[in-house]
Request: fold
Amino acid sequence: METYHFDIAPPETTHQAALQILKNKQTGKMFVGKMKKSDAKKWEAQFHILLKSKKPKEPLFKDKPLRVIVALFYLPPKSRPCKNIEWKTTKPDADNVVKTILDSLVTGGYIEADQKIADLRVMKLEWDKGGFTEVMIGEATPFVPSDPR
Reply:
């Protein structure tokens, strides 16, 4: 497994929250898209900058099924300090947050394509020392059922 630490607080908003009905200035047609100035777009742009600084020479574990673990370390609310790492069970939804991260790993050259991910785990955590994101990428191994039948 390759582990990458990114000094960027996990996003508080997701790509879905940024979606709006927009109008094409040239054709006048309506479409669903992201506003350029949305918080989700700003976070994604910052994440892309951090990805460039640690980019591997070629996609990791090329031609292999991948295991990806994303650990999102959020800062807890000031009203509830968190000296030990605890689960975050409030918004944003983990599945919506991870979509942006996975897309960025593809465009950043870390993985070939997100369909190569056979094993995905996302952890939303709160911690007083939080405010960062970690991504682990490795080769996936099959799950062996307890009852092979």
